[in-house]
Design brief:
This protein is mostly beta strands. It contains two helices and nine strands, in the order ααβββββββββ. A hairpin with a 2-residue loop joins strand 6 (106-114) and strand 7 (117-124).
């Protein structure tokens, strides 16, 4: 069962046509690269962390780029000038490129590299204009909905 019917969603939702594209992309990427291994952690309600094991990579060999709804992490190893003769080679040192789809209003806050672990902190910051508002009928001005926590 690989086909999804989004017709019921389109009957009651507007602007979710991107959702179908996300599902299609996810199906095509079933063989997503597993190198380097990584964790995605939910730290708080609107805070996330990606931790990626990049042993052997220097800061200058890793590029992190955030553009609209995509976070791209690229690792390009510099070639060794000295040819090494390995008896056993268990540490991978190949180049990699990882892309993560970001939800609306998710931004990269910090990135750090410690002990071979690349940690990227993300946060969702919803602008005031996108927060819920109560609309008065025949009213001239809009009033923000009071949060229950306040």
């Amino acid at each position: 069962m690989r086909n999804f019917d989004f017709a019921p969603l389109y009957r009651s939702a507007i602007g979710f046509d991107r959702l179908a594209q996300l599902f299609d992309d996810a199906q095509r990427n079933d063989a997503a690269p597993s190198y380097p291994p990584y964790n995605i952690e939910l730290i708080a309600e609107d805070k996330y962390s990606i931790t990626m094991a990049v042993a052997g990579f220097d800061r200058s060999e890793i590029e992190i780029e955030s553009e609209r709804d995509t976070l791209k992490i690229v690792g390009r190893r510099q070639k060794d000038e000295i040819q090494k003769n390995y008896l056993h080679r268990g540490i991978a040192s190949r180049d990699f490129e990882h892309r993560f789809r970001l939800a609306d209003h998710v931004k990269v806050v910090t990135a750090s590299l410690n002990n071979g672990l690349l940690t990227i902190e993300l946060v969702r910051e919803v602008p005031e204009a996108y927060k819920p508002r109560r609309i008065q009928i025949d009213g001239d001005n809009l009033q923000l909905v009071q949060s229950q926590a306040a």
